[in-house]
Amino acid sequence: MGSFSAIVMPSELGLEPEEGTRRQINQQERVFYGGYWVKTYPVPQDSLHAKRNLIEALTRRLFNHTEHGLNVPGVRLKEARAAYEAETNPAMRRVKGGMLAGALFNRATDIFRRLVELQADGVDVQSDYPLVQECGRCLLEALELGRLVLHRSGQEGIDELWGEPFRVFSLSVEEFYESRYIKISQCMRDIDRIAEAMKAHFGAITPFAPVVPLVAEFASAAKIKTETLRTDVNIFDVWARFATIGEMLSNFEPVLSPVRLAGEQTLEPQALEDGLCLLHAGRALIFYIVRARTPMPKSMAQYLDHLVYFREHGRICRTLPNLPG
After folding, report:
1. Which end of the chain is more exposed for a tag (fewer CB within 10 A), N or C?
2. Single pTM value for the model
3. How far apart are the first and last CA of the chain?
4. Where in the chain are the domains?
């Protein structure tokens, strides 16, 4: 699968350092947050040009991870607002609110492009410049409306995806990068929580026990992918390893022994099917967190509830929220 450096945990380095501590570990600078050493990257110059590039990238990421249709209005902000304000059906209004949020994001990105062009022409763009103020208003309103929008999986919405462009607007580029390292450490924490619960759950079920090492390897690859930017020279190996192990999890089949061991609990065919469903759902949830690089606490809590219910009843609870997948 290739050679990768493991995430270095504080116990390996002595006493736990203060939050935000930076160290060279295996010839790579890392910053310590929440119990994890996160890989750092050079910070672009704090300029409107750098902020524009960040907001454009975050806008693309937003549309990539949220439910379909948000970008349908494109730049037709006036029409999107009229459609939202005229809608009285709650379900339709929620969707149209998301479409309005998408149009507001596009408007903010367009404004930033104009500001960069003005700056390139020698115009001194101050924080009280009307276009700057309008950009902030668009992002803030989109953030409010973003609470109506779900993740593409149909699970919870991810407020962080909506708030990040506004943080780029209101913080320095260096401060924004630092906030992302904190968020990445939180993703790593949740990946570990999900993986540990999966290992404890499936390790106690004999037909599924062989999957435990694969879950551990998947979690390790997931954390490395979470901290690795797409521009990193290692991204090809990092992504290929993560995707390959994910495929192995998807293709796992329970190992059925013809001989029943003493004290071993037999599983009905439906229970085996439900167990596979839970395994695939755990893989999908970690996958969503890694790709969005943002925690999904509600979805994680629901998944852990499903694991507990299965351990107690030998089947999936049909009244709990739908599993990721």
Report:
1. N
2. 0.80
3. 25
4. 10-39, 48-171, 182-255+266-313
